[in-house]
Each structure stands twice: as C-alpha cells, then as structure tokens.
Amino acid sequence: MLLLAGVRGIHNNVKIKQMESAHDIHERIAAALRRHADIDSSTVKVTASGGEVELTGTVSSWAERDRVADAAWAGRGVHKVVDHLHIR
User: Fold this and answer.
1) Which end of the chain is more exposed for a tag (fewer CB within 10 A), N or C?
2) Structure pTM?
3) Would strands 80-87 and 44-49 be described as parallel, antiparallel, or unpaired?
4) Cα angle vertex 76, ends 24, 22, to 5°?
5) Higher pLDDT among residues 35 and 66, named by residue
C-alpha cells in the first residue's frame, strides 16, 4: 500500500454511463437527419450496431454528405462511422 503524506482520504465518484442501444443511436441520427430540411433522409439508410454506425444510400452533394456524417458522429455512444454514401 502506498501512503502519501497529507492525504487523509480518497473518494471515488467516477460513474460509468450505460451505452445506448443500437436502436436508440439509430433513432437519434434519423431524427437529426429529419431536422435538416435540405437533406432527403429517405435516401439515406442508417444502421447501428453497438457504437458503430453505417451510412448507405445517396446524397446530392459533398456538403450534404458531410452533414449526414456529422449527424451520425453527434450520436451519443457512437465511436465509429462507416460512410458508404454515394453522391448523385
């Protein structure tokens, strides 16, 4: 046991958040896409498994692709986004 001079006690207040389910992640991203009026969310498919999100479908521009990817990354619990979007 290591003793530090002057330390009288230690309190561990670290809390670990539960990961969101893949369904919750999917729903949050889909809702974010619907909020963007300039994104046709019907052409984008979002699949979530654990903290990994896969994006497939088509978008109309690079800017739209970036907004879709940003929405995916903004999902709580997302640690990887796989982008298979095509620009038409």
Assistant:
1) N
2) 0.67
3) unpaired
4) 30
5) 66
